[in-house]
Design goal:
This protein is an alpha+beta fold. It is 17% helix and 37% strand. The strands form eight sheets. It has a five-stranded antiparallel beta sheet with strand order 1-32-33-24-29, with no helix packed on it. Strands 10-11-4-7-12 form a five-stranded mixed beta sheet, with no helix packed on it. A five-stranded antiparallel beta sheet has the order 13-28-27-30-31, covered by helices on one side.
């Protein structure tokens, strides 16, 4: 009996849950003015951030200082600024021997964690040995701080005279500051120092900021190796067995060995690579002689920049070209020796950059973009997807720090070429991000992917115990298929963050999201549903299954490499997890899911045969009589066959409409 009670509760744990967050920018009424006079519940709504809960921050912009006094002993001033609010304080970087420094740094203090009514801004002089000297300070009463309401322009900073740290009088020097109350919609928010991450220092500050990334523009490079001429082997007593090896970056492909031994071999083979703009790699072609199964000899080489090749926008063939190859080792010769070689082998190629294909870096089952590479072939967007990444609840501790479990969580969302990364919330099992992002939608039959990770680059870049470079750890992943969303409806759900382990599924927390899909053109939407998912070149000149898998892996590697070079980097392990780098591996769960998909596809036909069998057996006499009457009517009036079929299908659809799903589908834990 106890076992029966446990099972339903466990099933409920993995289901989608409705949430009721207070969405929208509700700017509060104020008693008087300032920070401490805020009264929540105002009814002024703005549409900029209407899918997240409003979070208030006190912003302090430290711009610069002038005419700072020098130290009487050292004769110089190494200034920096300390901003203090209650128990929280942040500091700017210091400058050596500068009396007119410029910082232009923003500090953000969350209202939820502040108990003080006084903001203090100190200017200090860095000392190497003794205690840092006070230069002066400025004090603000939080009740007098103005509120900035978007879309107002940024608050203009002002000069303030410094006063003695005891407040007994003015001292030499001035500092330019701007202090205001705002929300996470403020443009200063992403790059600001945050009070809830006060423990993060050095390079870790850059690794916790929210950022937007764009995937590199990917092209398929098609190299059609036609033939070669005058390929001379090093051993003149034999004819060569020639093949061509092509390389672009880390991608290496080979043609088959020419079936005939000749100095003028022919292949007419296609080699396809993935290349990313800007084109940094070159196409390197070598002709090689197969001496034995384990030994090849290099005969010629040529290096071609990718900018040399035509960008093809349809299936029409491009012109072929002959290229002279450099004999191996000849490139290092100088002077008269170079002139001695009057003839060189040459190779016949047809090379183009394919702009009419969509370069797939993710699985077609969870694809988020179907547009071809060439922008000239893009259609107008059919909708807008807005996602509010609200918070996470009940996250599991991912590692131990100072003997206790901790998690520094951030969220990554990927749709189309646009990636977003929220800021990292330090040491919190229920982080609140409340960040909203927007994507243009070009096809509703696409999927947005969101993943939650534990940031392991907040402090140093080494694992505890010296285990090498740290890797951000996976907490879970959520996928939402846009075709399952009703237009202009806001979905607020808590999605379970589930990881698959050898023992089955394990829930590591919940991700709270607000999602809205807005249709811009219903006619374009209906038009898209009547066309294939991918661009037509995928059907005119399709790739083989092995080519698709190989090219997708290369595309994933390029995307991960390029995004890893951003600042702050989007880590390779996060990109690979979002793009399903291990999707080619066999999975019992995936096999069962595919089996159930096939069964659901055939279930209609099977159900029809069962119903006909019941009619034949007179299981329900009334139904059988009606079917016979209908059959006789259709024999007498055959022109009613099609209208009857359409009417029947319409009535079935009308009946099934009541039972349509009200929530976006989520993973089926019964498969594990």
């Amino acid at each position: 009996m106890a076992q029966q009670q446990v099972q339903p509760s466990r099933a409920e744990e993995y289901k989608l849950k409705d949430t009721s967050p207070q969405l929208g920018e509700r700017w509060p009424h104020t008693r008087g003015s300032g920070w401490m006079g805020l009264v929540y519940g105002g009814d002024k709504l703005t549409s900029t951030y209407d899918l997240v809960e409003q979070m208030y921050y006190l912003y302090v912009r430290v711009v610069k200082a002038k005419n700072l006094p020098t130290n009487a002993v050292t004769g110089s001033c190494d200034p920096y600024v300390e901003v203090k609010l209650g128990n929280y304080h942040g500091t700017t970087k210091h400058f050596d021997k500068r009396v007119n420094p410029e910082w232009n740094q923003v500090f953000a203090f969350s209202k939820e964690r502040i108990q003080s009514t006084i903001l203090e801004v100190y200017v200090k002089d860095r000392e190497m040995v003794a205690r840092d000297d006070y230069v002066g300070r400025v004090v603000f009463d939080l009740n007098e701080v103005p509120t900035r309401v978007p879309p107002d322009s940024p608050l203009a900073p002002q000069w303030y005279r410094l006063e003695d740290h005891r407040g007994e009088g003015k001292v030499r020097g001035e500092i330019m500051l701007a202090v205001w109350i705002g929300t996470q919609a403020d443009e200063a928010f992403p790059d600001a120092w945050h009070s809830d991450a006060a423990s993060v220092q050095g390079e870790g500050v850059f690794n916790i900021r929210s950022k937007v990334y764009v995937s590199p523009k990917l092209w398929y490079l098609r190299v059609n190796v036609i033939e070669a001429q005058d390929v001379q082997p090093n051993d003149k007593s034999r004819l060569p067995e020639v093949f061509v090896k092509a390389q672009v970056g880390n991608q290496v492909l080979k043609t088959k060995v020419c079936p005939t031994k000749t100095v003028n071999p022919m292949w007419n083979e296609d080699l396809v690579f993935v290349a990313a703009e800007p084109f940094e790699e070159h196409l390197v072609l070598t002709t090689e002689d197969r001496l034995s199964q384990t030994k090849d000899e290099l005969l010629g080489r040529i290096v071609l920049p990718l900018t040399l090749f035509e960008k093809r926008l349809d299936h029409r063939p491009v012109h072929s070209r002959w290229f002279n190859m450099e004999r191996f080792g000849f490139g290092v010769l100088e002077g008269e020796l170079r002139k001695e070689l009057k003839f060189s082998s040459r190779i016949h190629l047809r090379v183009c950059l394919e702009g009419a294909y969509h370069v797939m870096d993710e699985s077609t089952m969870y694809i988020s973009d179907t547009r071809p590479t060439a922008r000239q072939l893009w259609k107008q967007p059919v909708g807008v997807l807005e996602v509010g990444i609200l918070s996470a609840q009940g996250l599991a501790p991912m590692r131990k720090t100072d003997g206790r479990g901790t998690t520094d969580a951030y969220c990554v969302a990927k749709y189309g070429q646009k990636w977003v990364r929220t800021r990292t919330i330090i040491d919190n099992f229920s982080p609140k991000w409340n960040e909203q992002y927007t994507w243009e939608v070009y096809d509703p039959c696409t999927v947005i992917t969101l993943g939650v990770f534990d940031n392991c680059h907040v402090g140093g870049n080494e694992k505890p115990g010296g285990g090498g470079a740290a890797r951000d750890m996976r907490i879970g992943k959520v996928r939402i298929r846009l075709s399952t969303l009703e237009m202009d409806r806001i979905y607020t759900h808590a999605y379970p963050l589930v990881v698959l382990q050898p023992s089955g599924v394990k829930k590591l927390g919940e991700l709270h999201l607000a999602v809205r899909f807005t249709c811009l053109s219903l006619a374009s939407m209906i038009y898209l549903y009547g066309h294939p998912l991918l661009p037509k070149m995928h059907y005119i000149h399709p790739f083989t299954i092995n080519q698709v898998d190989s090219l997708r892996y290369q595309a994933m590697s390029i995307v991960a490499s390029r995004l890893g070079r951003a600042e702050p980097p989007l880590r390779k392990e996060a990109v690979e997890y979002m793009l399903d780098v291990d999707s080619h591996m066999w999975s019992m769960r995936r096999s069962k899911a595919n089996f159930f998909r096939i069964m659901s596809l055939l279930s209609g036909t099977i159900g029809m045969f069962r119903w006909l069998d019941d009619v034949r057996r007179w299981k329900n006499p009334i139904t059988t009589l009606l079917v016979h009457v209908l059959f006789l009517i259709l024999i007498c009036y055959p022109e009613l066959i099609l209208p009857t079929m359409f009417l029947y299908m319409f009535l079935i659809g009308l009946w099934s409409y009541r039972f349509r799903p009200r929530h976006p589908p989520h993973m089926d834990t019964k498969l594990s």
